[in-house]
Amino acid sequence: MPLSAAVPGLQSDAFQPDAVPPGCPRRPSRKPYSCKPYSPRPAPRLHGAGFLAACLLLCGALAAPPALAQPGDAVNSDRPDFVNSSDVVGKGVIQVEAGVGIERDRDAGMKERTTTTPLLLRVGVSDTLELRLETDGYTNHRTDGSAQARERGWADDSLGIKWHARDAQGNAPSLGFILEADFDSGSRAFRGNGVQPSLSMAAEWELPGDLSLGVMPGVTRARNDDGTHAVNGFFGIVLDRAWTDRFRTFAEFAAPRIARAKNGGSQAQVDVGAAWLLTRDCQFDVMYSRGLNGRTPDHALTFGVSLRL
């Protein structure tokens, strides 16, 4: 059975591609589309691949123990899947999660290519609270077709806080809540409309056979180009398998935005990926995504590292 038939709403009007404003990039985002005229501005290029290589070299220089003492001793990253962990990094811990994202999309003879350099900085305030600074970093969007266009600049920044509400108890999952706000701080071509707050809940269950299940529903308040506001949703569910104490794989369904067509429409994708612990403080990851509707990029690939300082 096609996934669009199995998941209610995928064939609804909110998931049809005709509501995407012409020329808008269809990147997975919790924000409504904001097509603004591009004004070329010189901006330094962020060499994401070079940064990742430096992080990997640093990880290799760290003394890796022969085996991880306990799962809790290893770095716990919110990369690369859409569903976040319910855990926080811990009091006094600073964790950097960086990567490179590559997206490809084709529609009505138009090809779109987008490269981003996502970054998440997590700072532990206590054993149950952490502060978060997140951005898609330097972004390069290119459109090829009857006309060519290229937009380059910086994405918006997001500030947030995560609260680890409880550990797993019996059949009850571990729970975490994330309150964030996106600020219109990016370059003109990628800037959102004002402050856009969001709230999500991350729930995780430990299952037999080294499996775990994560679910993350959430809501966000967005502002459209005409000044009106809308409350949109987002949702993700991921199944994770730990093959060893250092290597895991996962499969995921994600709806980064659930909205009416007039508010930008919904997005949906399936993801598969893997993560490998190079040391207890350093993780390398990779993920491939396949879009399920016209508003989501056809193909996306991301890879990155998470480093606990």
TrEMBL record:
<protein>
    <submittedName>
        <fullName>Transporter</fullName>
    </submittedName>
</protein>
<dbReference type="InterPro" id="IPR025737">
    <property type="entry name" value="FApF"/>
</dbReference>
<feature type="region of interest" description="Disordered">
    <location>
        <begin position="1"/>
        <end position="36"/>
    </location>
</feature>
<dbReference type="Pfam" id="PF13557">
    <property type="entry name" value="Phenol_MetA_deg"/>
</dbReference>
